[in-house]
Specification:
- The relative contact order is 0.12.
- Helices cover 67% and strands 0% of the residues.
- By secondary structure, the protein is mainly alpha-helical.
- The chain folds into 2 domains: 4-75, lambda repressor-like DNA-binding domains (434 Repressor (Amino-terminal Domain)); 89-126.
- The longest helix has 35 residues, at 91-125.
């Protein structure tokens, strides 16, 4: 028997999409995605939304088999023969990296201001 929820999970994993990212794309919680992946049969509206978010047809979700995985990934939304690159990243990781960069920048700015104050104090004490 086909388990559509498990098929969604396998396709998502093969495409390198985390539950959180899929949830954001669909306007759902990560827990809701987890629950969907446990369902044996998905309703038509849910199948439509998931297939759109994953970039695969509903039939692929319904009839997915691991041996078809290479075909899905290699033909996912690419209808020409041009080379394509798909980048997958966790937006939270990127956000944390940006915070760290801002922290370093702030520390450098603060150090520069301290040096200016010290220089001004030296000039005033002469």
């Amino acid at each position: 028997m086909v388990h559509q929820g498990h098929n969604v999970k396998r396709i998502r994993e093969i495409l390198g999409i985390k539950q959180d990212a899929l949830a954001i794309k669909l306007g759902l919680s990560q827990q809701a995605i987890s629950q969907l992946e446990q369902k044996e049969i998905l309703d038509k509206a849910t199948l439509e939304k998931l297939s759109g978010a994953l970039g695969v047809s509903e039939d692929i979700i319904k009839d997915f088999k691991d041996d078809k995985a290479i075909h899905i990934v290699s033909n996912n939304n690419y209808h020409d023969n041009a080379a394509s690159v798909q980048y997958n990243f966790n937006p939270i990781d990127k956000w944390l990296e940006a915070i760290e960069e801002n922290k370093k920048l702030y520390e450098r700015l603060l150090q520069s201001e301290k040096e200016k104050v010290e220089l001004l104090q030296k000039l005033l004490n002469k």
